[in-house]
Amino acid sequence: MPHNNESTYPHPAFMEGEGSITGQLCPPLRSLSPPFSPRQTNDLQLVREALRSLRNSFSGHDPQHHTIDSLEQGISSLMERLHRMEMQKRQERRVRGKSPAPHVTNEYRDAWPSNSKLPHSHSTPAMSSSACTKVLYFTDRSLTPFMVNIPKRLGEVTLGDFKAAIDREGTHRYHFKALDPEFGTVKEEVFHDDDIIPGWEGKIVAWVEEDHGEN
């Protein structure tokens, strides 16, 4: 004699940790999902309760249970996909936040003399790898520095190249900002036209002073 009382039991698909009606395992919505935020967890709980209520409206062998199983799996898959997309976006934002772009700015932040007041457009020095070297120089008669470009790489520019670039009449003395291993930042005077001018953080910083003819 067949048993007719199995329809009075809750459907296995909404029992904790049990399977579906067709003999294939159908884990509950909670077990299909990765760890979510508290808000997402509450949403999943509401969906699970709604599905349980819907299952109770059908008999134990009603084919609509299969439709509910498919709906449950589809919702779980969608929630998992949305969760992964959200986590990926957060990781990309963290990577962009750790970008090394400010490194160039920090590398040259101390390149300018402390008493100079330059326009913002002059605040980014040329890189030493450039075929053209930027030269910033001060004179006795002006508080505002002048700037020229010499078509040579830093480390190849001589005092003669600098004199030709600024084209100043008269006799002058030439000092250049340099880094001394013992004393740190110094003004180094260069005398001979063939001498290589020292650089400072990718450029040349110079002071041109009139020589009043001391013998």
List its salient traits.
single chain; 215 residues; alpha+beta; Ribosomal Protein L25, Chain P; 2 domains; five-stranded mixed sheet; 4 helices; 31% helix; rod-shaped; disordered N terminus
Detailed description of the structure:
- The protein has 215 residues and is of the alpha+beta class.
- The protein folds into two domains: 5-97, no CATH class; 110-210, Beta Barrel (Ribosomal Protein L25, Chain P), CATH 2.40.240.130.
- It contains four helices and five strands, in the order αααββαβββ.
- Strands 2-1-5-3-4 form a five-stranded mixed sheet, covered by helices on one side.
- Strand 1 (133-139) and strand 2 form a beta hairpin.
- Helix 1 runs antiparallel to helix 2 (64-97).
- Belongs to the DIXDC1 family.
Name of the top-level CATH class of the largest domain: Mainly Beta
Q: Would you identify the CATH architecture of the largest domain?
A: Beta Barrel
Distance between the termini: 131 Å
**Spans of at least 5 consecutive residues with low confidence:** 1-27, 101-129
Morphology call: rod-shaped
Q: Biggest β-sheet, characterized? A: 5 strands, mixed
Q: What topology emerges from the helices and strands here?
A:
Layout: H1 38-56, H2 64-97, H3 103-107, E1 133-139, E2 142-150, H4 159-166, E3 172-180, E4 184-190, E5 204-210
Parallel strand pairs: 1-5
Antiparallel strand pairs: 1-2, 3-4, 3-5
In short:
This protein has 215 residues and is α+β, with helices and mostly antiparallel strands. Helices cover 31% and strands 18% of the residues.
